[in-house]
Design a protein that fits this description.
enzyme inhibitor activity, Butyryl-CoA Dehydrogenase, subunit A, domain 3, single chain, Pectinesterase inhibitor domain-containing protein, Invertase/methylesterase_inhib, 200 residues, mainly alpha, Pectinesterase_inhib_dom, signal, 84% helix
Length: 200
């Protein structure tokens, strides 16, 4: 019969305890993460209901839930960043169309200028919101700035679309209309979410 090895048995038991503890921690973290995600999802759905396109708002911002969780300010900032990304894509599309030598060249140049300005305004709004976030408060002045810049960006987006349509270049208009409309939707969503930030 083999001699009794209490040290080996003790080590085995210790290993089992450690493994059980690790499993428990992992389970707890998964549960906490799931709860956090559920909270962010519910918060997002509630806030998106205040926008003109709740479905687009929810679908486009849900992938960023970890960034905003249940913060009104962070949610609005993320929405502004998403809008800025769409404006950059729209600007790239306009510049590609300019390379084709279309008869709507002048209108496209104007469009590129207004879209670029819109993108800058949205970035300014995001930066203003980031400042509010770091300061831990929602100042009336800071929110007013963010709203003003987002409203101006929407106006610029509309100016681009109007200029292209007035140029009478159907092919160019068809190519850009969807992009402009989508950009305006995202900027409008960001503005609505900024409007929903409670003052502290």
């Amino acid at each position: 019969m083999a001699p009794h090895q209490p040290h080996a048995v003790s080590s085995h038991r210790h290993l089992v305890v450690v493994l059980l503890a690790v499993a428990a921690v992992a389970t707890t973290r998964r549960a906490a993460c799931a709860a956090s995600t559920d909270g962010s999802s519910s918060f997002l759905r509630e806030r998106c209901a205040t926008t003109l396109d709740a479905g687009l708002c929810y679908d486009s911002l849900l992938p960023h839930a970890a960034e905003f969780q249940t913060s009104h300010v962070r949610l609005a900032r993320v929405a502004a960043d998403v809008a800025a990304a769409h404006l950059r894509a729209l600007l790239a599309n306009v510049k590609e169309l300019l390379k084709t030598g279309t008869s709507a060249g002048d209108a496209l140049h104007d469009c590129a200028s207004t879209v670029s300005a819109a993108a800058n305004l949205v970035r300014q709004s995001s930066a203003e919101l980031a400042g509010l976030e770091e300061g831990g408060s929602s100042s009336r002045w800071g929110l007013s700035n963010a709203k003003t810049w987002l409203s101006a960006a929407i106006t610029n987006e509309g100016t681009c679309a109007d200029g292209i349509n007035e140029a009478g270049a159907a092919a160019v208009s068809t190519s850009l209309d969807a992009g402009v409309a989508e950009s305006r939707q995202h900027t409008s969503i960001a503005l609505a979410l900024v409007n929903g930030i409670p003052l502290q």
